[in-house]
Specification:
The complex is a heterodimer of chains A (606) and B (193). With 606 residues, chain A is of the alpha+beta class. Chain A has 14 helices and 26 strands. Chain B has two domains: 49 residues; 127 residues, Lipocalin, CATH 2.40.128. Classes of the chains: A alpha+beta (606), B mainly beta (193).
Chain lengths: 606, 193
Amino acid sequence: MGLCLLWVLLFAAFPLEASEQHKYALSLFHFNIQYVAGGLIGLLPEPRNPLENWMRLWDLSAEEVEDRIVRESFEPVLDLYASHPTWGASIELQGYFIEVLAERHPDVLEKLRDLVLAGQIEMVSFHYSDQLFIAYSSLDLERSQELNREVFETYGIPLSGTVFCQEGQASPGMASFMEAHGYNVLVWPTNLYKYQHGQQAYQPYYAFGPAHMVIGSGSVFYNEGEIQVIWPFLDDGETLATNDCDPYFPFCFVHDPAAVETYEKEIESYEAQGFAISTVGRYVEEVISLGIEPSDPGPLLEGTWQPDSTDGVFRWLGGPGLFFFRQERDNHVRSLAAAAHRDLVAAETLAQTLEREGRPISRTRDRLTAAWRLLALAQVSDATGINPFRGEVEYGIAHAAEALRIARDLIEEGKDALGYQSVLIDTREGSVRSCTGPPADPESVESGPVSIRVDAPGRTFTQRWQRLSTSPLVVRLEIAFSQGSGDESRRIRVTFPGTSQEIRYCPALQEETPVSYSRADFVWDHFVLPLPNGMIGLDEGRFVIKDTAAVHVGAIIYPDRGDVDFADHTQQPNEPVTWVFYIVEGSPGEAVRTANSLNIWPALYR
Amino acid sequence: MGGTKALQCDKRRASAARRTWRFAARLVSSVLCCASLILGGCSGDHAAQPPEPKEEGPCTPGSHYDFYRMDFGLDYRDSGTLRLSATCDELEGTFSVIRGNTLLAAGHTYSGKGRRYRFPETGDVLYTLKVSAPPPSDQGPCGESEISLSLSLSGKKGSSYLVGGLTAYCGKDTYYGRPARVMRVSGTLEQER
């Protein structure tokens, strides 16, 4: 009895090390200098009389909006942390943001650099532009990364190993990409996780391929409080210092010291409760050093941070916004950027051929770099979501068109240098051959291997099937939709029937390696996949591939059937449109090769 | 792993939904009086009868000309007219804008050459035109330096509605690098004869 009492007293006085509490308050500020890509001019009509002059408040150019983001929302956050040297936070922004600081706000850049070098601010950046990278090839992100790293190195700001992205984009395919580029922790959005697996008790951290993952802003109360994590802030950083106002509203998007003070007091209270005001990276390092093993997150599908309200990635790949839906043209924006990718890769291939032969084209490297930069800007997410107005839509198209022009000019010059009238540029092989032009159009066949369903109110359409090969069977399907009329004709949906219980596709940034997941592993009632290489399984041995330069809209899948829907609700009524798909009957490897030779590493006749 | 329990901490959640509703509330309260203008006047609706560029077989430059005209909008506050003549896929063209800006002189006729790029795999088209011109004043982003203007307009298969950019680069005949500005251009291309 006495011995028992002694044990109890000892436990009470000296709790076991394992139950020592480690408490973290993590803040992650996501800043986007392209919050209103291209500026606000055009959001409202031009005033026609003095009574409408208030609308001039919105007459802000891209540079003016960017400057306001820096001064009204970004600098106050830096000042807050500078005044609390023991606090840490993670700030995510794109390389383009750093360029804006360097060009027009060097004093703010200096503040940022000081805080990063002091270890207070963890610099998080994964893309040069706030692009919808999960809809495009890993090469596009590779080029974006190159630009990004160069910018951060130029201005002496070290990047951390933590990753958080525009719109909270996350993909299982990021793991190997992260490892190859020196990143080690992904912040996977809570709502994207819940959308797939339901409400969970979140673990301190998870395995993510060779890297790690935390679920932000999922609070953690692990092992009876041994590890506790709260997220005082994980949001658009622009809204903290402006009392929750964003750059679309110039009249209220101004620095409000009281809003910053409120947040400051909140953080002070957490500090008083024993929470370390930490960066994400430091937190993960510490829980690893405590010997805590990573948890298994289960299967993951790529998406964005608020799938409930945006219908996953659909909002950016065919889904309309609430206010300016008549101005949207998602498929034009996304398919043109996919087309620009193809010609840029072809231009690179041709340039390499000429360099090998000692006949380089003038300033090739600079021109390609400029074009890749334009493409990164063109892929900005806001050109197709969340509520883009015409200015943002056309920002995406304008930048993609110019990237494409540079690529095509290079190809023409390369052809002249080689003395070829027409070429076949095989980007996978890295070869350039003279040819007489595109091959004859394959013969049409009466029907294809699947019976599609088409829903296109207010439009007529024709289907054309062409057999390209028999082993494996590859057929091309072209659906030509006429002009429509009225709002209902904005909606086009094509359904490919399927029976597969598995979801077989290549996740974003992993277009060479297909995965297979059981639908039963997820809780959603439908899910929208971006499919950068266009491919997804329908049945055992049958796949559909969208030609992303013709139709780059979301692929909708379901838990209880293998059908795949492709839908666009932003097709302009008065314009015809042609969608192109391929059906492959063969192995997953054959389908992947077909998809990638179409969308990722194409062979182009030019 | 040990037993776990989630703490609730729902302040300031990143939320597209919230942004949407925030947007809605503010838009409705402050812009209600012109909502109809936003939805109607700025709509992308337009009548686009597609005089699609003809699919051409072998073509001898100079053997045949097509002429096009496009009245376009430029960055939503300006407008202008583009005229193109095409022989095979070689283009010559002129354009002018009404208001102008620090990179474009109002009423000035800019002329240049370009190409019509075809994409046989999709049927899409890209119209391009390059123009080198002095700046309208030395107050713009290029100062006194000559400006290279690159017009790139994308047309989807079967559609005559073109969208793209007029990209301004500082320097003579410099059609790459860091643009001084990418101006947005859109309009319907019409065949004149």
